[in-house]
């Protein structure tokens, strides 16, 4: 058995003390709501978290939050994700990426769009950031830790956002990246067997809402920023959109298994949130009304509207929370819809 497979996908509870975790859900352009919440927190220098877990667009939002780049995610979603170079359905007919993540992340190396990975690493300190991705070979969720090196961090973000069919087979991460991403300090590198450089896909396929992962890693207060409606219970926003794309193209049999896996994983996480262990507090942050934006193809007005909803939700959360006081006896799962 390949020991690498045992190291990365599995949860390891290393916490001696209860942690406060922040989870950012994916959702494509709907992540601009999350960007608004985090921008509101940056306004007040609010960051009491010990553990961060981001899925897809959520991983990008958490990175810019740690980099203290207020407004960065909003600018990229409104700009790059709406650019015709990023998304063209017709490109799939000639064997190219429909969603060109290579172009997108190359743009983030430009001076005026640069992600400040150095600041993000410094602010992260000895805390933990995990970026979710799905291994296309074993279809398991992998929780990958950036080393701080910009190229590696950027590739993890790309892998976490690589939707099947839209970004062909996924992102090829080297065994070197995989080993470092395992983030298991107690395992020497020589104990990890060499592995094939697998392709990785969107983290939302296998870990759409990694609340259990946060709990298993010692988090006992878990804040989850959602990009769906408060009454949502079945599948995340991009599933129907992606299903329509792939089935119309004739690739449905190759991709439908991922969608079924996603729906099952999502339902399991919702059940955990609805019936949490007694020693955990789960807080969900939703928009006060239905988000206007979509996975892709949102108008600029819709994106502006949802970012404002995020700002409102983030500020309202701060008004309700005292970061200096945490009642450990409060153990029920909460879901807040902040005004």
From TrEMBL:
Motif stretch (GXSXG): 54-58
Motif mapping: DGA/G: 202-204
Gene Ontology terms, MF aspect: hydrolase activity
PROSITE patterns, alphabetized: PNPLA (PS51635)
Active site: 56, 202
Residues in the signal sequence: none
InterPro entries: Acyl_Trfase/lysoPLipase (IPR016035), DUF6363 (IPR045943), NTE (IPR050301), PNPLA_dom (IPR002641), YjjU-like (IPR037483)
Locus of motif GXGXXG: 26-31
A Gene Ontology biological process term: lipid catabolic process
Keyword Lipid metabolism found: yes
Boundaries of every PNPLA domain copy: 22-215
Keyword set, alphabetical order: Hydrolase, Lipid degradation, Lipid metabolism
Gene3D superfamilies: Cytosolic phospholipase A2 catalytic domain
Name the record gives this protein: PNPLA domain-containing protein
Species name: Pseudoalteromonas nigrifaciens
């Amino acid at each position: 058995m390949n020991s690498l497979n045992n190291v990365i996908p599995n949860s390891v509870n290393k916490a001696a003390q209860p942690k406060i975790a922040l989870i950012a859900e994916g959702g494509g352009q709907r992540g601009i709501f999350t960007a608004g919440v985090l921008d509101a927190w940056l306004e007040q220098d609010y960051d009491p978290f010990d553990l961060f877990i981001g899925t897809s667009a959520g991983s990008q939002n958490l990175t810019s939050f740690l980099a203290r780049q207020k407004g960065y995610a909003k600018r990229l979603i409104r700009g790059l994700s709406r650019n015709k170079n990023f998304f063209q359905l017709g490109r799939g007919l000639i064997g190219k990426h429909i969603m060109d993540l290579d172009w997108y992340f190359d743009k983030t190396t430009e001076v005026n769009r640069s992600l400040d990975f150095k600041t993000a690493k410094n602010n992260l300190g000895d805390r933990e950031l995990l970026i979710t991705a799905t291994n296309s070979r074993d279809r398991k969720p992998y929780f990958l830790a950036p080393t701080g090196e910009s190229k590696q961090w950027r590739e993890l973000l790309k892998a976490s956002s690589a939707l099947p069919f839209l970004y062909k087979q996924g992102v090829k991460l080297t065994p070197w990246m995989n080993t470092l991403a395992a983030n298991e300090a107690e395992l020497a590198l020589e104990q990890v067997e060499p592995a094939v450089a697998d392709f990785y896909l969107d983290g939302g396929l296998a870990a759409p809402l990694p609340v259990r992962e946060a709990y298993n890693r010692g988090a006992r207060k878990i804040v989850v920023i959602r990009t769906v409606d408060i009454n949502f219970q079945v599948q995340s926003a991009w599933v129907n959109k992606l299903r329509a794309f792939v089935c119309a193209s004739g690739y449905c049999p190759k991709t439908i298994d991922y969608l079924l896996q996603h729906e099952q994983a999502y339902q399991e996480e919702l059940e955990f949130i609805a019936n949490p262990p007694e020693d955990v507090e789960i807080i969900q942050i939703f928009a006060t009304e239905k988000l206007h934006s979509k996975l892709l193809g949102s108008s600029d007005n819709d994106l502006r509207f949802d970012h404002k909803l995020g700002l409102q939700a983030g500020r309202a959360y701060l008004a309700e929370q005292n970061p200096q006081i945490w009642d450990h006896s409060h153990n029920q799962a909460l879901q807040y819809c902040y005004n």
